[in-house]
Amino acid sequence: MLKKNSNEHYNSFSKIPQLDYEPDSEFLEWYMVEGYERISELSRCLRTFLNYRKNVIQLKFSTSSETDNNLKNDSILKREGELSSLYTQYTALVKKIGVENAAIAENIQILIEKVKIQPYKNEITLLKEIKHIGREMWKIIHILSEFEVQLHPYILQTSIKIACVLSSVEGIFFSLFSNFYCELKLCYLQLEKELSELLLLNKAEQFKKKKKMKGVRILE
C-alpha cells in the first residue's frame, strides 16, 4: 500500500470548505503567545511538584536535629507570609459563592456555567479575582519549592495542601488541560499523605527521645 506524502495530506484538508479561510495574523499571534505561556505554566507546575517531591524525600532521610535546630531564613518567612495572606483572600472570595475548601472546584464550575447563561458583572469579577489570586499563589508555591523547604516541614505541608486545592481549580478554568491538572492533584494528594505520615512518625520519635531524656538520672 502506497503512503500519501505530506503534500497530498495538505491538499486533502484544503478541499474541506470549512477550512478554506484567510489566515488571521492577529489570531495566530495571540494563539502563539497564549499557547507558549500556557505550556510554560504547565512546565513550571510539573517542575514545582518534582521539587516538592525531592523535598519530601530529603526530609525522610534527614535527622530531626537538621529540622529542629534550623532557623527560618528571611526569604522563606517572607514568601510564607505572602502565601498565607493570599490564601486568606482566596478563601474569603470562595466563601462568597457559598463553598468551603472541599467543594471549591465543583462550585466554581457551577458559577462558570451560570455566568455563560447570565453574565452578571459581579460574578464575572469574582471569578477573575479567584483566578488571579490563584495564579499569584502558584508563583509563590513555585518559589518556595526552590528553597530547602524540607528544613521547614510545616511550611512544606501547607504549600502542598494549597497546591492540591489550586490543581483542582485550574482544571476548571483551563478545561483543555483538565486531565493534566487532575493528575497533578492526585500526585499532590499522594505526596501530602506521605508527608503527613512522615511528620507523625517524626513527632512520635521526638516524643520518645524526650521521654527517655526525662528518665535519665544525672550523677553528681
Topology:
Elements: H1 6-14, H2 25-60, H3 64-68, H4 74-95, H5 104-117, H6 121-145, H7 153-173, H8 178-214
Helix pairs in contact: 2-6, 2-8, 4-6, 5-7, 6-7, 7-8
Please characterize this protein's 3D structure.
With 220 residues, the chain is mainly alpha-helical. The chain has a domain at 32-60 and 73-189. 77% of the residues lie in helices and 0% in strands. The protein has eight helices and no strands.
End-to-end Cα distance, whole Å, is 96 Å
Shape: elongated
Measured on Cα atoms, how large is the radius of gyration? 24 Å
Based on DSSP secondary structure assignment, what is the total number of beta strands? 0
The residue-averaged pLDDT reads 79
Number of helices: 8
In helices, the fraction of residues equals over 70%
Structural class by helix and strand composition: mainly alpha
Beta-strand share of residues = under 5%
As residue ranges, the low-confidence spans are 8-23, 215-220
Major β-sheet profile: none
Q: What is the H-and-E element order?
A: HHHHHHHH
Which features does this protein show?
220 residues, mainly alpha, 8 helices, 0% strand, disordered C terminus
